[in-house]
Amino acid sequence: MKRELNSWFSPALQKDMPIVSYGDYGFALLLVPTAAADYLEYERFQLMETLAPYINSGKVRVFSINSINNESWLNKEMAGAHQAIRHNQFNEYVYNEVVPFIKNATSQETPIILCGASFGALHSMNLFMKRPDLIDGVIAMSGVYDLSEYTNGYYDNEVYFNSPFHYLSNLTDHNILEQIRKSKHIHVLTGGGDYEDPDASRKFAGIMYDKGITYELDVWGKEWKHDWPTWRAMLPLYLETRF
């Protein structure tokens, strides 16, 4: 498959940020890494191999970016308020730099679907829910949508406004809610095995239900653990059957 590496100095993050893309055509799938991983994580764990048929056929063009979690929520030496500032800078990087890059590389009409596993699922859901005018949908795998699970006891308005579990239930902005409701691709997937938390997905799905948001909740069995074999099975299946 075609593979391209790019990078630029991010004004939002004040550092060089690489991005990799796979393929030429199709809707854009933007991958957000797990935990403190980098933009090549999904490639290293053979996910790109499982997506190759859909990439090579022109169904999807995949983009993958770095995380900065080790400079924010996973940096235990950093004060909570500073972690929040850094995370918000990451959001601005995605909205103001990555999205325009994808549009320029594809077209202004190309849909962008966010996707992530584990911590990347939370970020993907948050990025979509905050800016449904820019992002068209989300595939969230094995996520916990309460950011306070990662903040080591710290909680303020910035944690609240980056924690979909908290802010969505109180969201009343009609325009934003209608944009979210228009999406045909809000997929919440989880395994039921070791280190998975299917109740976190069920609880968040309940909030979406109460808000009149159309979504798909898919809880797999206990043989599906919080690990790469699960995500390598989930994502190709959804590309095959839902897009």
Rg, alpha carbons: 17 Å
In CATH, the homologous superfamily goes by the name Alpha/Beta hydrolase fold, catalytic domain
Shape, principal axes of CA atoms: globular
Cα separation of the termini: 20 Å
The residue-averaged pLDDT reads 97
The count of domains is 1
* H/E element sequence: EEEHHEHEHEHHHEHEH
- Could you give a short account of the major beta sheet? 8 strands, mixed
Helix content range of the residues, please? 25-40%
Low confidence ranges: none
In terms of DSSP E residues, the strand content is 15-25%
Order of neighbouring strands in the sheet with most strands: 1-2-4-3-5-6-7-8
The number of helices is: 9
Annotate the secondary structure layout:
Blueprint: E1 3-10, E2 15-22, E3 27-32, H1 41-44, H2 47-56, E4 60-65, H3 80-105, E5 112-117, H4 119-130, E6 137-141, H5 157-160, H6 164-167, H7 174-182, E7 186-190, H8 198-210, E8 216-219, H9 228-242
Parallel strand pairs: 3-4, 3-5, 5-6, 6-7, 7-8
Antiparallel strand pairs: 1-2, 2-4
